[in-house]
């Protein structure tokens, strides 16, 4: 691969931590690229009034817009797509976006925030691990030859349904308003996934185990497994494939040191994905550190690999 095709810093996440990391890394005059939909950030629909130097009650969407303008001003590239796959290929890290594009870099920062959204339905929580799951990559193997459904409107659900085709005998995708890249939608429509579009789940059925669901049009669906994948591909799944260490108790957060380094050389994390307190001020501070550390790592790595 030519040197010009390799980015110095790949950043997954365009919320406060990702944008701050991008600003500090890009100011080093290196190649920086960020991935993610800013509107998916928890800040997007929030208001902020407890951040030092920011007066009054400020709209989160406005602040994110300013951050995006800043990170671009300093030379970073922003790709407003979800990342659906990560890998380490030799000395480089690879991320693949929902449109199928692949990008390579010398360092990688996870700044995705945390969210494990549920449907908020009765029996949902009590059937977790007994037919209800929030992670296709984690649990697909348990549903070989089974009838399963994935519910969600975005890339996590779409890729989850396609992945399950390798295991399950029947796969449904339930989506009220499918919002994925055209290439991904085309792949879905040409696959064996049965699309139940314009519909949602209103009831989960089962006592000791999941038995099925009732859709909002009253249609019953018998199932062995239900995967709730609301939003983008989860950071835990993306990080776990690279061998990044998660907290040993709940496997909810990425473990880092004070330099925002993970257990894998060249991989950093910042913001809510590193654990509480889930505050913008913390995310900005960790983003700053991660951006500086990742850029320093990448500069040394580029010299070693390309003698430049």
From TrEMBL:
Signal peptide: none annotated. It comes from the Bacteria. GO terms for molecular function: oxidoreductase activity. This is NAD(P)/FAD-dependent oxidoreductase. The lineage of its organism: Bacteria, Pseudomonadati, Thermodesulfobacteriota, Thermodesulfobacteria, Thermodesulfobacteriales. Keywords: Flavoprotein, Oxidoreductase.
